[in-house]
Amino acid sequence: MQVLFTDAVITDTSGRREGNVLVEDGVIRDVAARAAGAADRRVIALGGRTLMPGLIDSHVHVVASMMNLGANAQLPDAIAVLRSLKLMRGMLDRGFTTVRDVGGAPPALAEAVAQGLAVGPRLICCGKALSRTGGHSDMRPRQDIHDPHRWERNFGAMGRIADGVDEVRRACRQELRQGARFIKVMANGGVASPTDPIAWQGYSAAELQAAVEEAADAGTYVAAHLYTSEAIARAVRAGVHSLEHCNLIDAPTAALAAAAGAVAVPTLVTYEALAQDGPRFGFPPDSIDKIETVRARGMASLEVLRSAGVTMAFGTDLLGETQVRESEEFAIRARVLPSAEIFAAATTIGARLIGMEGRLGLVAPGALADLLAVEGDPLADVTLLADPARNVRLVMQGGRVHREALEG
Ligand SMILES: [Zn+2]
């Protein structure tokens, strides 16, 4: 079965050009196809609308269906899975055809999507994120002295505890064995966890180096949860490639990250969502107190990263009920960054970060047919992607039309 998009304005980071795009067997075959042709071909006339690559969100947690991550980790698996499927469908509806899950989702869930058993974005998983005792994946209340590992096999758990070089190595090997595509470590204090102030270092240099070595031995890299310059510098020196959040980064540390070729993944919308909606959706009081520390410096961090020349991918990190706000990240970044750079973050840069450069994030022969039909020109004004219900008129994933509203 072929699908031919006619009268499209093909748009990706290489620019805009008119064309007819032919899709066959889930792959883009031609971007200058003739309008006539085979009888078993479905023709979708775009009437001059933009045809662009599907979006890539490089920082999500599809298992995080509740804001209270301790409670989320204790959900029965059957309920946790079904809640995640609803979140995943929402992501695809908004045009995110691929997401990098940075803690929680098992690679088996990615397999379920690939087999067509679940409707959702292509998932690039790391399995459970690694955290020290008392770190960003230790969800026990302060007075809880019982086994810290007791929830970590649950579907709803975002992370697992691993202390010391040997445990870190073993945990990396276990996640990689199960199909993790990269390794995630919690290398700084976090907002959503109860006993780790933001400024705490999450892992020693030796532990980080061990994780980097294990990832490299398996042909991949480490992503680290980070806020402060001290923690970011330690992680970069240890060889960590993907720097999540980075809200409190200063200029010298950004220069260090740029020189190392690291990629930053800011996630600004989640701090807005936590500040506005956290209390009513049950975000714990200990965590509410920590939001402002990182939220206030979020916008400035974009300018620091850009000035230093750090490559930035698009991420959101939304929890629970606020996941519906995913697309707002486009509008928040657009207050500081040029539209074309934000567009690249959510397409080509995201594709490179998951090792799919040339296969995702562009409209070209040989690329996977993850495509959006969009109103307007997102290279000139990326904020139109912040309103997908209005502006994203068609979502195709792997050559299949998932959602379509081209009339009117
Ligand atoms: Zn996260």
Structural features, described:
With 408 residues, the protein is an alpha/beta fold. The protein has 2 domains: 2-54 and 360-404, Urease, subunit C, domain 1 (Roll); 55-326, Metal-dependent hydrolases (TIM Barrel, Alpha-Beta Barrel). It has 14 helices and 18 strands. The protein has helices at residues 69-73, 77-93, 107-114, 164-177, 205-217, 229-238, 251-260, 268-277, 285-295, 298-308, 328-334, 339-345, 348-353, 388-391; strands spanning 2-12, 15-24, 27-30, 41-45, 50-53, 55-60, 96-101, 122-125, 129-131, 159-161, 183-186, 222-228, 242-248, 263-265, 311-312, 371-374, 392-397, 400-404. The strands form 4 sheets. Strands 1, 2, 3, 4, 5, 16, 17 and 18 form an 8-stranded mixed sheet that branches. Strand 7, helix 3 and strand 8 form a beta-alpha-beta unit. Helix 4 packs parallel to helix 5, helix 6 (229-238) packs parallel to helix 7 and helix 8 crosses helix 9 (285-295). The longest helix has 17 residues, at 77-93. The chain is globular. The two termini are 27 Å apart. The structure holds zinc ion.
Write a short abstract of this structure.
The chain is an alpha/beta fold and 408 residues long. It has 14 helices and 18 strands. Helix 7 (251-260) links the parallel strand 13 and strand 14 (263-265).
Q: Report helical residue fraction.
A: 25-40%
As residue ranges, the low-confidence spans are: none
State which percent range the strand residues make up.
15-25%
Query: What is the CATH third-level topology name of the largest domain?
Result: TIM Barrel
